[in-house]
Every structure is written in structure tokens, then in C-alpha cells.
Design brief:
Largest sheet: 9 strands, mixed
Order of helices and strands: EEEEHEEHEEHHEHHEEHEEHHE
Low-confidence stretches: 5-22, 42-55, 62-67, 175-183, 276-284
Oligomer: single chain
Strand content: 25-35%
Radius of gyration: 23 Å
Structural class: alpha/beta
Helix content: 25-40%
Shape: elongated
Distance between the termini: 44 Å
Number of helices: 9
Mean pLDDT: 76
């Protein structure tokens, strides 16, 4: 992504499941992918407001790490324009810089679609236009099938939040199908831990080294989760639990719902102090 601005926006991690009112941001969690819907900011790339955070620049900085796991879609209203998704690769303040960038895209054999953000008169240059949200997300993740190596931002023109959620049915369907497939495959193991409360624990990971356990738990805390470490002193395995419940039925239901949509990675159930069985060195 080429951005014609000297701003260096701050990067902020935003947490939440559906809407973050204070940030005016909406979030949809899929099986392995998060869709974020962000209204256009009138101060985007403004040199007169040092507090302005460009969602374009922020996403480009994070995209190297989270490519394929997160898609940030900016909403933009343009009077008279057809509702569609654009893969934007450059934003410019001047017509001269815009034309120079278009020439660059032409040398690569790439399409160029130019439109203006009416909030600040910046010129956006896109290399793909589609009415299909799934296609836009897939093309961004694949870097336009490997053709464009730099950062790509999705801009939804004349799409409100309700329409974006409706268009995201492909993501919800994929999640529901995956959960149905694993409905009869919830892993359940048993262990006796005298110093722990009896119950059913949702386990996210197992480690043999304390350092690895600590690093993983820190990652979970940054996501707003409250992990707990259970230690099997027979083999010193360390089990990272996300929650404890009283019944097996409740534990299985939480695994199937992926902790009510708050955790998209693999989970299984550890029954603690329910029966006189212990996990051996081979059961991790």
C-alpha cells in the first residue's frame, strides 16, 4: 500500500465481539478469521490532526503478522456510486501523484480504479472491484493471487453495517459448518489434581516448559481471556485452561460454541477429580 502522507499512526488492538461503541467499530468472528467493519474517518491521513489514526496504515502494519486471519473493511459513502468492495493499494493527496502511481500499476499489467473520498478529497486507487465480500477477502489474503505483493486494504463503498453483516453470511456459514463437523468429536480426558477444584476445564494447550506456558497465557490475556494453569505433578505437564464448569454437558456445549465465539482455536475438556484416573505421559 502506498500512502501519500507523512503521518505515522499509532497501532491499537481493539477487543470485542460485536460492537465497540467508543471506537465506532464492528467485529464479526468467524472460525479462523475476524472481519472488522470500520466507518470512514474524516480525519484519515489529515496532517492537521496528530491524533488521527489511519485504519489503512494500521492494517498495513499488522497485515504481515495476521494475513489471512483478519480482514479490516472500511466503510465509505460516495453519492451515486455503485455499492461494491474495492481492493485499495494507494491513497494520494494530489492528482500528479495519483497519475504516477497509475503508470506504475500499468507497468505491472494491473487494473486501476480511482475514486475520491468525499470526506477529505483524497484519491483512492484500487486494483479490483467486486460486489462479493468473500471474493474481496480472499483476494486480499492471497495478494490478488500472488500478483500484488504490497499491502491491500478493502474499502466497502455505500455499504452500511447491516449490509456488511448480511454479505458476511459466507463466513458465518463456514463457522457453523465447522462446528457441526466437530459436534461429535469433543475430546474428554480425566485427571486427579488434589489441589484443584473438581469440575470440567476447557483446555487450550498443554506444555512441558514453564516458559512456553507463560508466553501462551500472555497471548491469551492480550485477547481479553483469563487463562489458568493446571499442573499435573506426575509428569509436570502444564494445562492452560480458559474456564471451569460444573458439568460435562456444559463443557461440551462451550467447546462446540468455541467458548461462545470468543476463542477460535482448538479446545478440549479435562475432567478434574471426577474419577480415579490419571493422565499418563502419552495423553497430551
Amino acid at each position: 500500500m502506498i500512502v501519500d502522507s507523512d503521518n505515522t499512526p499509532k497501532v491499537e488492538e481493539k477487543l470485542g465481539l460485536t460492537q465497540i461503541p467508543s471506537k465506532n467499530e464492528y467485529k464479526l468472528t468467524g472460525l479462523k478469521q475476524v472481519l472488522k467493519f470500520i466507518p470512514a474517518n474524516i480525519d484519515l491521513l489529515s496532517e492537521n490532526n496528530n491524533k488521527s489514526t489511519s485504519s489503512f496504515n494500521r492494517f498495513c502494519k499488522d497485515q504481515v503478522i495476521e494475513s489471512g486471519k483478519s480482514a479490516e473493511i472500511q466503510m465509505l459513502k460516495i453519492s451515486g456510486a455503485e455499492p461494491a468492495y474495492y481492493l485499495v493499494t494507494g491513497i494520494f493527496k494530489t492528482e500528479e501523484n495519483t497519475n504516477q502511481y497509475i503508470k506504475f500499476l500499468n507497468t505491472k499489467g494491473l487494473e486501476n480504479i480511482v475514486f475520491t473520498n468525499p470526506l477529505n478529497n483524497y484519491r483512492y486507487v484500487a486494483i479490483l472491484k467486486t460486489t462479493n465480500q468473500e471474493e474481496a477477502v480472499a483476494k486480499q489474503a492471497s495478494k490478488l493471487d500472488g500478483v500484488f505483493k504490497d499491502c491491500i486494504q478493502i474499502v466497502a463503498v455505500n455499504k452500511n453495517v447491516t449490509q456488511l453483516y448480511a454479505d458476511a453470511s459466507w463466513n458465518i456459514k463456514r463457522k457453523d459448518t465447522a462446528l457441526a463437523d466437530q459436534a461429535d468429536k469433543v475430546k474428554l480426558q480425566f485427571i486427579s489434581l488434589p489441589n484443584e477444584s473438581k469440575g470440567y476445564y476447557l483446555i487450550a494447550n498443554v506444555f512441558a516448559m514453564t516458559e512456553n506456558t507463560g508466553n501462551f497465557m500472555n497471548q491469551l490475556k492480550k485477547k481479553g481471556l483469563s487463562p489458568k494453569c493446571l499442573i499435573n505433578h506426575q509428569n509436570n505437564f502444564q494445562y492452560v485452561s480458559l474456564i471451569r464448569v460444573d458439568t460435562e454437558e456444559e463443557a461440551v456445549a462451550l467447546v462446540k460454541s468455541q467458548l461462545n465465539g470468543t476463542y477460535t482455536e482448538k479446545l478440549w475438556v479435562l475432567s478434574v477429580n471426577s474419577v480415579n484416573e490419571s493422565i499418563t505421559d502419552n495423553d497430551h
